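Can you give me the bound-state structure? Components:
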Amino acid sequence: MENLKRWLIGKPLKSAENDEQKLTKFAALALLSSDALSSIAYGTEQIVLVLVTLSAAAIWYSLPIAAVVIVLLVSLTLSYRQIIHAYPQGGGAYVVSSENLGKHAGLIAGGSLLVDYMLTVAVSVSSGAEAITSAIPALYGKQVIISIVIVLLITLLNLRGLRESATFLMVPVYTFIAIIVLLIATGLIKILTGTVPFQATETVGTVVPGITIALLLRAFSSGSSSLTGVEAISNAVPFFKKPRAKNAAGTLTIMATILGFFFVGITFINYWYGIVPKSEVTVLSQIGEAVFGHGVMYYVLQFATALILAVAANTGFSAFPVLAYNLSKDKYMPHMYQNRGDRLGYSNGILTLAAGSILLLIIFQGSTERLIPLYSIGVFIPFALSQTGMVIKWYKEGKGWLKHSLANIVGAFISYSIIVILFVYRLPDIWPFFIIMPILLFIFYKIHDHYIKVAEQLRLEDEVKLHTYEGNTVIVLIGNVTKANIGALNYARSIGDNVIAMHVSLDEDEQKEKEIASEFKVKFPDVRLSILHSAYRSIETPIIRYVDMVSKEALKRNFTTTVIVPQFVPRRRWQNILHNQTNLRLNFRLSWREHIIVSTYSYHLKK
Amino acid sequence: MENLKRWLIGKPLKSAENDEQKLTKFAALALLSSDALSSIAYGTEQIVLVLVTLSAAAIWYSLPIAAVVIVLLVSLTLSYRQIIHAYPQGGGAYVVSSENLGKHAGLIAGGSLLVDYMLTVAVSVSSGAEAITSAIPALYGKQVIISIVIVLLITLLNLRGLRESATFLMVPVYTFIAIIVLLIATGLIKILTGTVPFQATETVGTVVPGITIALLLRAFSSGSSSLTGVEAISNAVPFFKKPRAKNAAGTLTIMATILGFFFVGITFINYWYGIVPKSEVTVLSQIGEAVFGHGVMYYVLQFATALILAVAANTGFSAFPVLAYNLSKDKYMPHMYQNRGDRLGYSNGILTLAAGSILLLIIFQGSTERLIPLYSIGVFIPFALSQTGMVIKWYKEGKGWLKHSLANIVGAFISYSIIVILFVYRLPDIWPFFIIMPILLFIFYKIHDHYIKVAEQLRLEDEVKLHTYEGNTVIVLIGNVTKANIGALNYARSIGDNVIAMHVSLDEDEQKEKEIASEFKVKFPDVRLSILHSAYRSIETPIIRYVDMVSKEALKRNFTTTVIVPQFVPRRRWQNILHNQTNLRLNFRLSWREHIIVSTYSYHLKK
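Here's the bound-state model for the whole set.
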């Protein structure tokens, strides 16, 4: 087990090695941008798909819509740059909302993002799996299994640690960036040199009959799904090399610039080349064919798209554990999310995310269409809250607040609009969000409540007085009369003033019981033996009843009560299955009793 | 949890209630014969299917083949009746082979049967599921899920206890018996009254060109698969009401008579009516249509067949746990197979069988054709071994042995022949058997070896001398300086002569460490505090290193060493997830150390 773990995730790292594991901007871009960048594989398509429900002539509206998306992108980027500088310890929307809008808003933002990262992983991994199965038709129908395997691989990569996953992810991310740059450049050159004539159905500005504000809003809200993933860097500031905030903000700007350029470029080429969505082929793939022809470059594009979709899941794996860490530090999630694993990652967060996304993959059977609207609502709520939070922050800090918060105001306004649009037009898809969130909030508060109460109970008074007991009653559980008991009885006599051996008789067979009693008397003449009867073949129930009785007496005399449960420790671990695990069960059940201490005496088998 | 368990399997029964749970012959027939009886749903078909590969004219050979099958049935029945009387404690082939042919042969028989019962469950449940999906086409493609649900239901029934499952199973078993009696009677009457003319392709005795011994042998070996399940009663003798052996032998005779009558009747009607197997419709279903017409009775037949196939799995559930119990009593399987559950069934055997058969269903995706040959080899090996064992037994017992063992000799001869036929003609299907068996034998011997060694090590010498220690060193693990430590320190001082508080510092933060040290000094001035450092964020490793050091010193002074690990016991069980389970892990890792006793001090949270 241990060896397998070492082979899979590598040797443990010292806490002091933490700084060596930090990321350069170049590596961070690979690790944290795949989610945002991969969304351009479907962003333009989402807009055009809504528009063509009216007619192909309406496609030109994708250009002004793209412009609004870019405005939103710019405002989000400026806003998150501010957040990075203001909150360099990471935590993004959760921290910003908590500090400026109150705990409740913070938890809504945090909870949304937790769910959202699971959705990110599920959505991107299953898009990746679809790309793989369209390339290798023999695998068709196995998408869910492939998706789960990819999730497991990414989990492993993340358990191995940050730096190693970044190295591994650079290839797909930078290949994708390179091929898209080439695609847009070639496409534009062909337009400028006149190689490709103007093929759009309608020129910009023509009023298409039947166009409605509602349609445009729906197209916009669909297109804005390209912006999911922009917040990831703000959650992951602690992963950067120093100066952390500066490097993180720089990386965010680079990412946003690339994303904006790609989005506008692809939308424009799509319009100019007059490409209409088809159900079998994606828009990006049609553009690729139109620009590169059906050659090698086209296949490189397809392959790079598949890969970046598959690895986009990694963004969730970087951001989720940090967010869980922050929630845990504030006592809203179990403490275990603060533990760092052997390779310095927050392993429990990584494993929880993996389990959650695998569950989503199984429930939704990898159907991405049903997950995307849910995913959008889950990301725009934290967007809106964090930007509102920033506005409040600037306002509180006083002078020049309007200047500082201009980007935030615009961003907040657009984000709220998208939430309203989603609520009005996509309620049938997003209702689960409004069920999950209250449950999550309830859990957060329950956990918080518990931790607060524990802290209160544990607080020491100023005067601490240790108590002195008169003596100790020790009860030793005895199976048959064998060598294993000698050590436990020796130990019991060393700590106890009053030693009782206790045997539970399961058999109705009185003969065997008498044999044990008389054998015990011969071998251990000075130890008292109590034999308990069990009518229901459970050995725990009669033991607990007896121990309760003894401990009541002991307390009266100001004695402690110790129950010693001997256990066999075999030479090899598999042999444990050959022995009763009574000690574990007894330990568990007796732990609910007060004033009783359970000791495990290990008898080591040598052969 | 507890309530759910009660609702599902019922209130616990006292050990003394065991006798009330025993079976009458009528109930036992329902419980133990479904496997054997259900096989007539496919027995004749298996023979005819092989014969028609030559020509429809060859079908008449099914009559002499059926005659040989009947000879085998009679010899097996006589033989198992002898076994029941000779070994009334149950265990069948395993016990007979062990006692007369040696442990090795016994384990081969036992191991084959264990695997075979899993196969029985998988095969019969998936045939049942196929019958259900052909009745309700909407469920087509969900056979594996349906099969698993049926296995779970039968498991539950068996966990509830013997008598209740017998009651439940009487309906399908007796309905099936009634409808088949009616089918054969109606079929014969129609033949005798001349309503149905002789429609066979060829009369008995005609030599069909191209017929070979090999073909006849293959047809015979296929047909003999109808006899699987005959041994079940001999494994389950302890379940019968007293006189056990007599009732069991009687039940076996009744079952064999019914089985023989059904097999011959169906084979004869099939021949007379000239029915040729079709791929879509089973032979039994064709016979039903020919005899009853396409009316209500036909559907009753189909439904009863489906039901008995589904419940045939229950035979495995009755026999497997008893066999596992016998193997476990002889120390070849883990002790836990001897524990009786709340309802007096051997729950661990029941659960193992369920898990194994569900695994088989998933691996083979419910494809029965691939399982049946494997299943035949697994049942004829124990048949052959147990009959050989009986021959040896009679021989050893001396006079008149040949008379006693005549049936056994015939049975053994036919069983060995079938094994040879299977080996020659079906090796591509049965090879997994020859891989699984050596592995299983290896496991049996490994387990046995372990238990024997344990018993040797535990045996007490005649002179037992208890040792007296000079004192006790007690180490208390301390987290932060809180109230939780007071109780543990009090207890430690009561049992120890030398109390050390131990704290593990995970943070590189020296400040916090100093704070804890000074706070501890103020609050508990007379207790020594050791602070350990952990470079790898594991708290167990430094603790173990420190404890090793302390215990070495203690041993030199003839002191015991106790490690006290305080644990939080929250008011509600779910809250356990909010606290570190350090005590469990530490308990486990320290258990590998000798001379160290681990105590759990429970601090009960009140709020």
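A couple of observations. Chain A touches chain B through 78 residues (CB under 8 Å). The first strand of chain A starts at residue 471 and ends at 478.
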